[in-house]
Design goal:
It is built from two helices and no strands. It is mainly α and 104 residues long.
Amino acid sequence: MKKLTSVALTVAISCISTSVLAERPDFSKTVAARADYDFSKNISAAEQPNNIQRVSTRHDFSKTLAATSDYNFSKNPYVEPVKHTHPSSQHDFSKTEALLDGSL
């Protein structure tokens, strides 16, 4: 138990010390940190165009090889369907020790 505590403390201290020693950005070197910077010239977020490209969850099948008129589906290899046998998740409680002992 003492070893586990020691290891846990060592890991915690090493994680904390690395974040403390990490280099922080120096914002004093940015353009906005200069005394003559005019914040009134900034464009408000509401006025900025929304150029975020949305990722579609739909796939464009018109660009696939199978969408061309030259594609021959009859040449696709035949795949044998897989039959899954799912074991029963039912448990026979009549065979449990608790029921046999009469403690239930």
